[in-house]
Fold this sequence. Notes:
Layout: E1 13-16, E2 21-23, E3 32-37, E4 40-44, E5 47-52, E6 58-59, H1 62-66, E7 73-76, E8 80-85, H2 88-94, H3 96-124, H4 134-143
Antiparallel strand pairs: 1-8, 2-7, 3-6, 3-8, 4-5, 4-7
Helix pairs in contact: 3-4
Amino acid sequence: MSHPSSTASQWPERAIPAGTVLIREAERSDHLYVLSQGAFDIVRAGVRIVQVREPGAFLGEIGPLLNTPASASVIAASDSLVQVIHPAAAAVRSDPALTLAIAQLLARRLQTVTAYLVDLQQQYAGTGTHLALMDQVLARLMEQQPRPPQAPGSERADVPDY
């Protein structure tokens, strides 16, 4: 796998003290980070999802890639060091090694989520519970296709842009 640390020397490093919010959920940013050392908690809607500790891990890749607000907060769990990629969207477009590394990361995540959903589907098939609907969730996940870029604004036709 291409690894971002192979070209990381071109990106500046930044020390992040424990407790610092590096990325705030629902805020837009064109920054992408690569973890050099330390640990970060990923928190969504007040729930800690995971702690990232692996050097070379990406932090904040979803917002710049999709041109959306951050889907979660990223909070330093210990004193940490990150490499800062800014502007992130431009770097991803211009650096094939970075693009491949992010694509591989996202593909691994999708593979893991799909395996988990299949497991749920197998466990709860025929039970009549909401978890028995995993076949529909999996179908929707697999139907996802790239969308053409949209102008900022409401995603719903019945809600005006402000």
